[in-house]
Amino acid sequence: MSRSIYGGAVFEMAKQQFEQVANHLQIPKMERDRLLYPKRAIAVSCPIHRDDGRTEVFQGYRVQHHLTLGPTKGGTRFAPSVDVGEVAALAVWMSWKCALAGLPYGGAKGGITVDPYTLSPRELEALSRRYMQEMIPFVGPHTDVMAPDMGTNEQVMAWFMDTYSMYQGQTINEIVTGKPVSAGGTLGRREATGRGVAYLVGRALDHLGVKAGDATAIVQGFGNVGSVTAYSLAERGVKITGVSDHTAAYYDPAGLDVAELQRHITKRGQLAGFSSQSTIEPSDLLLRKCDVLVPAAMEQVITDQNAPKLKCRILAEGANGPTTPEADAILDRRGSEIFVLPDILCNAGGVIVSYFEWVQDLQRLFWEEAEVFDRLYRILERSFQQVIARAKHDRISHRMAAMAIGVNVVQSAKRTRGLFP
């Protein structure tokens, strides 16, 4: 594809990763564009009345990567950085993630270019409902199923579901996942990504012969994923020595009280103000010595500048795309020094339990929390074993192995179905 609407550093990163795995798999050049470029991209304008009487228009996007295996699936983020290139990259990664986990989905992603913290509760509801209203012609329970992402939450999903349902004339719970349990959500969805990260960290520690009670962890990003990961690791006996969010970073080799951190977040909405004694520069947090480093915030935080300086034993990617291809090359040269849990494996717990929620909504039959997590851990275990085995057999990195499995699944399905018309 000589010209494309998809640009920016994040999409270029997704494209570069794909080209590397396509070269490894020896995918013919004529098949690559169809595998990489999204099936559909939607851009919409979302006007709302602000509380001061002004009318303001926000730009919204939704990218559906492929529908070969089933409906597309993916989150919706409200953030100032959102553009069509970033959304497309996240949709591509979601495709490989779903395929690796064996889910009957293609990848999707959406978002609005807005800082949600500048919106009042009424404005947030108005913008959420307007975005879903604009998306109604392009989404559906068997076409594209939305979920929360950075800047959105259970409440936003409830507004999405209600807006769609009002236009359909009946309640359609299965149009979104990540809803409150009272609105057709599933038990365990909010904690799923973080608990999945912690489970896989536990498996990596086992693989390396390190006892959880002897391990330390640093978690960059203390939102939903990071906070649940920290809490779940602490439950396993891992000492949390560092945490950060967009307002502050703290490091204490003696360990931080995760429960106190969570109480502070609940009260203040941010980490700033928790402590004046253990404060450090956020960029320094990634470079502190630890057994487990969990980047759980944004893309491209592990770069060629800091990758040589990492002092962790396990890099567990709770965020999407936290490691640039240049940093990956450095990690590859460091060999077995750092055990990488790549994002499409490490943070797959969220979409796996979202799949469970969708299935339960379609069946109108809901599971107990224990069943949700039992099923989640079984899928993660299978994926973990597949990635480790593929990496060993092909003598490639864990990231390359995970992506090779995912891309193989999508490529095989496209070949089997053929090209219509």
TrEMBL record:
<dbReference type="Pfam" id="PF00208">
    <property type="entry name" value="ELFV_dehydrog"/>
</dbReference>
<dbReference type="InterPro" id="IPR046346">
    <property type="entry name" value="Aminoacid_DH-like_N_sf"/>
</dbReference>
<dbReference type="InterPro" id="IPR036291">
    <property type="entry name" value="NAD(P)-bd_dom_sf"/>
</dbReference>
<dbReference type="InterPro" id="IPR006095">
    <property type="entry name" value="Glu/Leu/Phe/Val/Trp_DH"/>
</dbReference>
<keyword id="KW-0560">Oxidoreductase</keyword>
<dbReference type="GO" id="GO:0016491">
    <property type="term" value="F:oxidoreductase activity"/>
</dbReference>
<comment type="similarity">
    <text>Belongs to the Glu/Leu/Phe/Val dehydrogenases family.</text>
</comment>
<dbReference type="InterPro" id="IPR033922">
    <property type="entry name" value="NAD_bind_Glu_DH"/>
</dbReference>
<dbReference type="InterPro" id="IPR014362">
    <property type="entry name" value="Glu_DH"/>
</dbReference>
<dbReference type="InterPro" id="IPR006096">
    <property type="entry name" value="Glu/Leu/Phe/Val/Trp_DH_C"/>
</dbReference>
<feature type="domain" description="Glutamate/phenylalanine/leucine/valine/L-tryptophan dehydrogenase C-terminal">
    <location>
        <begin position="186"/>
        <end position="418"/>
    </location>
</feature>
<protein>
    <recommendedName>
        <fullName>Glutamate dehydrogenase</fullName>
    </recommendedName>
</protein>
<dbReference type="Pfam" id="PF02812">
    <property type="entry name" value="ELFV_dehydrog_N"/>
</dbReference>
<dbReference type="InterPro" id="IPR033524">
    <property type="entry name" value="Glu/Leu/Phe/Val_DH_AS"/>
</dbReference>
<dbReference type="InterPro" id="IPR006097">
    <property type="entry name" value="Glu/Leu/Phe/Val/Trp_DH_dimer"/>
</dbReference>
